From TrEMBL:
Pfam families: HhH-GPD. This is Adenine DNA glycosylase. One of its GO terms (biological process) is mismatch repair. Its cofactor is [4Fe-4S] cluster.
Amino acid sequence: MTAMTATQTPPASLHDPVIGWFEQHARDLPWRRPEAGAWGVMVSEFMLQQTPVSRVLPVYEQWLARWPRPADLAAEPPGEAVRAWGRLGYPRRALRLHGAAQAITERHGGDVPSEHGQLLALPGIGEYTAAAVASFAYGQRHAVLDTNVRRVFARAATGIQYPPNATTAAERKLARALLPEEDERAARWAAATMELGALVCTAKNEDCTQCPIAGQCAWRLAGKPAHQGPPRRGQTYAGTDRQVRGRLLAVLREAVAPVPQSALDEVWDEPVQRARALDGLVADGLVEPLAGGQYRLPLS
């Protein structure tokens, strides 16, 4: 794969068309509204990791109705966060969000901090989420690199179809070089490039006729050369431990009392894989084993 290098196109020539396109075509999403606040933005960022907007929307709205502030979530057992997470997948995100809510309540008086370093110090928050919250909630200037943004930059600036499987230092350098200087405009740019990747410059069916920077896109101008890098990771689900974990958690989420082992045994026929999945849920803190071979969602 060609190494990431700084764009030869002046960054300023990309800003106006992309931000202008965003002003006209951005989806009206609840976490983009002023009333969402920093907590609403943080909740959305946790939920949207590897999960499409259509699946997140109903869970997000229920979550914010039940827990409108971090302290409301922090006051509940972590198992309630796992229960409310439903079938969004990757349920450890629910535990991490609960842990972040507790830390916000204890360290910051219940208000999501605005400083990038303080956000990064919260449990369960990495560089991407800290930058996203600081940018989208507080209008700060940070490089926000999710999958969609990385794909837009790979194509428009670097001339390759897909970015590397893992974010590289070269990508971060490029993202910083492309940032507008003004905080508010940089935050708008971050949201706009993310939306462009989600709606137009998609992974499989890019629509260059709708792209505001098609005329400057290095990949398009090069004739859209095919991906030459390592195989892109696919996401399989059927028959995996992830599927088994999901079925076990579904039983526990729907139960109002501890669940016996026998009830969990019914969800998957293969005993070795079932036991491995259950052990993994316990090790991850998503399930709490009790005496007498019973299980429940965690209370602490």
